[in-house]
UniProtKB/TrEMBL annotation:
This is DAGKc domain-containing protein. It holds the Pfam family DAGK_cat. Signal peptide: none annotated. One of its GO terms (molecular function) is kinase activity. Residues 5-138 form the DAGKc domain. SUPFAM superfamilies: NAD kinase/diacylglycerol kinase-like (SSF111331).
Amino acid sequence: MKMPPAHGPVFIVLNAGSGRQGEQARQDSIVKAMDSASRCYQLFLFDRRRPITAVAKEAVQAAVSVNGVVVAAGGDGTINAVAQEAIGSGCAFGVLPQGTFNYFGRSHAIPEDTDAALELLLSGTPTAVQVGCVNNKIFLVNASLGLYPDLLEDREAFKNRFGRSRLMAVFSAIISLLGEHRQLLLNVHWSNAAGPAVGAGEGAENAGGLHQLRTPTLFVGNNRLQLEQIGVAEAGELGHGRLVALAPRAIGTAALFSLALQGAIGQLGEADSVRSLAFERLSVAPAGRFGRRRFRIATDGELAWMRPPFEFKVFEKPLWLIKKTEVANAVATAGGPS
């Protein structure tokens, strides 16, 4: 696969700011840094009147026309939306992390400080990185259905009311767990599993096949940092054409709190009530009367409605992310995307 150029004009997609001081300050920093570098650039601003999907498409088209670089400035949701348009376009992709957790940027050693991230953007090397997808909707960090999307929706409501912070995200999750949660009955088939399914329990098989699973949520990860933080043993399987699935058993509120605590201290993978496995392809279909209804799916914190079956796999094309030169060289030497 041919590495795209990284020294052309830069097309940056970012939130218009809605007048908020912090976002305006970051925008001013970007403008100042690009002007100082004497690099040709253009800002593409999105807001409630101009949705990010349309703005991202416009920015990518502009970048492709001049062998330029398209850049996402924002959290994992913003980065996902721009990457959705950039992947397969043939242009390099840059990131200026500005979110709450910034798992994607942090996992690729991209600084959370805007000035430092800009310095890397202007000097780094495009590197092919792995991207997951569910029914052709890509995800860089994770995708999920069931309880986890509900938690994300509640977190967004808390953020709009009380502001964005990691502490507020944890508090909103606690409040959400206190509510009632529906248990999903899922028919699951996976192929090319990398090894034993940790905590799979009685009757589970590791070689694939069709299995029925009752769980409050199914979580599929594509971010090694996030999985390592919660203690998932299969985190090291990422980056080799595999994703990692997690699914707790059908449990009550108290047990869910216990799992949340184990995740917070990096021991979720040790819980007997959590199934986990690495796979290359995972097909999921709700059983019974919910088999054809639409489900809410979360991809990198953004919610969308999809109809089953849900097919999880690694996207066939990599994303050409601009990273530190030494990081890019290490990946190239290892012989595969990260």
